[in-house]
UniProtKB/TrEMBL annotation:
Superkingdom per UniProt: Bacteria
A Pfam family reported for this protein in Swiss-Prot or TrEMBL: Lys_Orn_oxgnase
Keyword Magnesium assigned: no
Keyword Lipoprotein: no
Enzyme Commission number, as recorded: 1.13.12.-, 1.14.13.59
The protein, known as: L-ornithine 5-monooxygenase(L-ornithine N5-oxygenase) L-lysine 6-monooxygenase (Lysine N(6)-hydroxylase) Siderophore biosynthesis protein
Protein's organism: Cupriavidus taiwanensis (strain DSM 17343 / BCRC 17206 / CCUG 44338 / CIP 107171 / LMG 19424 / R1)
Entry GO MF terms: L-lysine 6-monooxygenase (NADPH) activity
Primary enzyme class: oxidoreductase
Gene: iucD
Pathway: Siderophore biosynthesis
Amino acid sequence: MTLREISPAAHDLIGIGFGPSNLALAIALQEQAAAGRPLDAHFIEKQQDYQWHGNTLVAQSEMQISFLKDLVSMRNPTSPYSFINYLHRHGRLVDFINLRTFYPSRMEYNDYLRWAASHFAAQCSHGEEVARVEPETQGGRIGRVRVVSLDAQGREHTRLARAIVLSTGGTPRIPQAFAGLRGDPRLTHHSGYLRWIGTQPCASGKPMRIAVIGAGQSAAEAFIDLHDNYPSVKVDWIIRGAALKPADDSPFVNEIFAPAYTDVVFEQAQAGRDRLIDEYLNTNYSVIDANLIDQIYAMLYRQKVCGQFRVNLLTCKAVQAAQGSAGGLELAIAATAPGAPADTDTRRYDAVVLATGYERESHRRLLAPLARYLGDFSVDRNYRVLAAPELAVPVYLQGFCQSSHGLSDTLLSVLPARAEEIASDIHDALAGERRWMAQPVQAGGTQAIAAA
């Protein structure tokens, strides 16, 4: 029997997920409260303690944006939650300045986020995964929702909310060719890389042959980590393209990640939005930092010098099918170059790392009980889902709005501005709802609800 714990009090808002997006929102809400506009907010996070991509933090991982694009500095550079204040509090500000870099390691940035999150521990329930968000209907109108979550012991928790902010991030994308290998311990998505590699035979020095699939930054970092830290491993890195491509982070292009550019994208018709997003995909997707590409090229060149080939880059290749056997994982690999033969080459590996990106569909699953009110999950400029009038609970999405708000929506660049926009909109929405609740219902109540 499932044990249920029901909290009778309704929060003004519940944030689902407590990654950087909702952490930035917690900071913005605190600032808003100090300005006399308080809201009662609670956050639910499935991880037991705070980790930001914790299983991907290999030694070579560095941030790809400036430390000044932290949780708050672009909005409020005097905030105590800035990255600079974090360095000061930890006695490393002078040392960091001496590094002469804008780009901290991901390990340090993860520690910064943990430090910032620790200030909001009382507002967050860790170790609970939200299962669904259910409507609570009164008189044909939904003024609150039930947020149902499960903890590690299988206990069910139900909390009431007047507003929802969903920020659960992406879920690993598993290519169709590997769908039949889900759950096989020899296969991992890069999101679980560090935990997984520690369980593999190469962690104790045994020889292995590993394939890395994908052409972006994550694949490059896994490739280098396997080369540098697991000398018993032979690696094939398989990419569809003819070469590794550098990320475009030049100054003029980087302006597309400025908060003001969100308006430029949003104000376009959908065809214009799509064109702008497609034009700049090379800033974020299937691209690698140029210095990392140089490092990989030098690595492969040294192999030629010494005549010992332990790692290989296989270009113009795609995995068509994959199957497991007692002897390993067999990949059917086809050439992607125009005019290449249609036949496939079968290669056997002891393990495979999928650096194949993420899907962003979890909001549809969690909000399924509200789907009839949320249409196609389109959002307004302030990230609020456009909903049917009878759903009086505002629902906001963070990290699921790239098609309407631009490439920066899934990244860190706009966190401070977006958090302020959402915090202000929630306050105004709930204030309007309270005014509506204070008024007696008149004849023609349906029209009054729609206007509210």
